[in-house]
Amino acid sequence: MRTPQVDRGTGLPERVRIYEVGVRDGLQNEKNLVPVEVKAEFVRRLEQAGIEVIETTSFVSPKWVPQLADAGDLLDRLGESGRSPHRPVLVPNMKGLERALERGVTSIAIFGSATETFAQKNLNSTLESQFDMFAPVVEKAKAEGLWVRCYVSMCFGDPWEGDVAPSQVVEVAKRLMDLGCDELSIGDTIGVATPGQVEEVIDGLVEAGIDLDRIAVHFHDTYGQALSNTLTALRKGVTIVDSSAGGLGGCPYAKSATGNLATEDLLWMLHGLGIETGIDLPAMVETSMWMSEQLGRPSASSVVRALGTAS
Amino acid sequence: MRTPQVDRGTGLPERVRIYEVGVRDGLQNEKNLVPVEVKAEFVRRLEQAGIEVIETTSFVSPKWVPQLADAGDLLDRLGESGRSPHRPVLVPNMKGLERALERGVTSIAIFGSATETFAQKNLNSTLESQFDMFAPVVEKAKAEGLWVRCYVSMCFGDPWEGDVAPSQVVEVAKRLMDLGCDELSIGDTIGVATPGQVEEVIDGLVEAGIDLDRIAVHFHDTYGQALSNTLTALRKGVTIVDSSAGGLGGCPYAKSATGNLATEDLLWMLHGLGIETGIDLPAMVETSMWMSEQLGRPSASSVVRALGTAS
Fold it and tell me: Which chain B residues have a beta carbon less than 8 Å from that of A223?
């Protein structure tokens, strides 16, 4: 299988940690329910390919996201792996945290909003009251010794509000981090960002006192911009990148929802740049081809399509 | 129609000139013949959207590329516009140049190879003898007052040879430019490049004495890398970018051929970065949606898909 020609780029990190979101963020948007054993096998194959951090599921109410009603069952099937600090689960609120703790989870993610409208529509909260909602969740999680990531969504544009001021993103992110979170993931939920915005937001976060090594970027590829925005973040010193095997996923709230940055497309760039990831690209391509078969449709990843059809 | 939020990126040019290749490079790879009047209308719509430079066709032998047998007819239909210095045509050899001159063409492009195998397969020449083949073509074109671009293909990887040394690319490019060409386009024909290679090749070209303002980049999106490579070239000071309306095109020699960088995806990034192009993005999206209808399949451009389906 072809591999990228290695030429080291200037001003880039030596190592990048990929935070794989395909199992949770990807599959939660599937119209058809994916059997829990397929999800478990997906996680095992990603582990085999060398992915270190995998967000496995979400303890959201099954009323809202029936695709994730199997959260506890999935963790049980994964055994020890499902309780590793490298297998975070999303928890929307205290009830979700309690369910996660019952299953022995050791790391979680919460999901905040950079905009008022998305806070109302997705969190059933307000921009301001989300901090009160998340404070006891983070407090309890930290008291239980958990690792906590906070996502901030709609950081570069909002389907209802349009433009989003970088200063607003920085303020929301800072207040969420100040609750005691360990890691921040800045999300371009609808895929509209361009590199100048990425620079401005990252600069703002660093100026606000958030360490670069706690900042992750999370780009969607709706407008084809995910990889160049990621490259921009790497040049700024970011070393944690969210991506999704095969480009699975999307935002159910955006009409033309398309997936997250594909892990394989990201790996092609990183490995071509001589950046270490610890991940085996051919094994990832095979995993995504297998997942494509399970879902009955072609992969959204360009690399998977290119290498999967070549012999 | 949604437009990108503008945030100026650092170290980037103020203006970029897009060299539109969709009409020639794009349509020459269509399985079905596209009617000449559709091609003419495509050019007119691109002009209306503000595209300054459009490569219209190729005077290649109809035996080899029947899709372009209508080259002369197309130029006649375009009238004065088809003879503008901003409407280059590809000529593979002296015979092609003569046919172009008969139609009153005022700018041409030649198509060289950075690798031995592609020179043999595509040019029916060798890496070395291509210079002898192109020398009289460029000489005659310059004597007739024409503007001449030279493409160099397979600059970042070759389907048969694998890796390509940047030093080899620079040498081929320098020798072709020394024949008297006005502009150079560095092509990633199979879409495998990553940013370190792009930096190394551009640095090498500049060190070899080729002015930055004569260098264009031409990326294919087969592995999803086109836009981040383009961004890398812009950061190096390149201001001419080849792209294709709707991402039309591909390389007939690569199994998993996919298109050129889509003009609309490039425009989204450039306009988000506050870089001037003189092009109207919504008009481009409409043009590509119209062309999609003519071809009977969805656009390969993420921006066209995102904006074309949103109301």
Answer: 4, 265, 268, 302-303, 306
CB count in 10 Å sphere of residue B118? 22
All residues of chain B having their beta carbon less than 8 Å from the beta carbon of residue A9 are 194-196, 199, 232
B89 contact partners, CB below 8 Å, separation of at least 6:
B24, B55, B56, B57, B58, B59, B71, B75, B100, B105, B107, B108, B109
**How is residue A85 written in tokens?**
């600090």
Nearest partner of B262 among B295, B302, B230, B234, judged by Cα: B302
- Interface membership of B222 toward A (CB under 8 Å): yes
Can you tell me which residue has the tokens 């041409």?
B108
Distances (CA, A) of A222 to A12, A260, B289: 25, 8, 17
Whether A224 and A248 have beta carbons less than 8 Å apart is answered as no
**Phi, psi torsion values for B110, nearest 5 degrees:** -110, 165
Residue identified by tokens 């404070």 is A135
What are the strands, taking DSSP E only, across chain A? Answer: 17-20, 53-54, 57-58, 89-90, 107-113, 147-153, 183-188, 215-219, 240-243
Report the CATH architecture of B17-309.
Alpha-Beta Barrel (3.20)
By the 8 A CB rule, do B252 and B29 touch? Answer: yes
Rounded CA separation B45/B36 (Å): 14
User: pTM value?
Assistant: 0.96
Q: What average pLDDT does this structure show over B62-66?
A: 87
Judged by CB atoms closer than 8 Å, whether chains meet at B223 and A163 is answered as: no
Q: How far is CA A242 from the centre of its chain?
A: 4
Residue B228 to residue B245: CA distance in whole angstroms: 18
Q: How many CB atoms lie within 10 A of CB A108?
A: 26
Which one is predicted more confidently, B254 or B24?
A: B24
Phi–psi pair at B294, nearest 5 degrees: -60, -40
Residue-range domain boundaries for chain A:
17-309
For residues B45 and A160, give the distance between their C-alpha atoms in angstroms, rounded to a whole number: 31
From A223, A228, A255, residue closest to B303, measured CB to CB: A223
This model of the complex carries an ipTM of: 0.95
Question: B262's torsion region: left (phi>0), alpha (psi -120 to 50) or beta?
Answer: beta
Q: What is the mean pLDDT of residues B86-101?
A: 96
Dist. CA A225–CA B291, nearest whole Å: 23
Can you tell me the distance from the alpha carbon of B63 to that of B69, in angstroms, rounded to the nearest whole number? Answer: 8
B123-143 confidence digits (pLDDT tens): 999 999 999 999 999 999 999
Chain centroid to Cα B245, Å, comes to 11
- List Cα–Cα distances, B237 to A113, A234, B154, B204, B243, in angstroms: 37, 20, 22, 13, 17
In whole angstroms, what is the distance from residue B255 CA to residue B251 CA? 8
Q: In chain B, which residues have their Cβ closer than 8 Å to the Cβ of A163?
A: 5
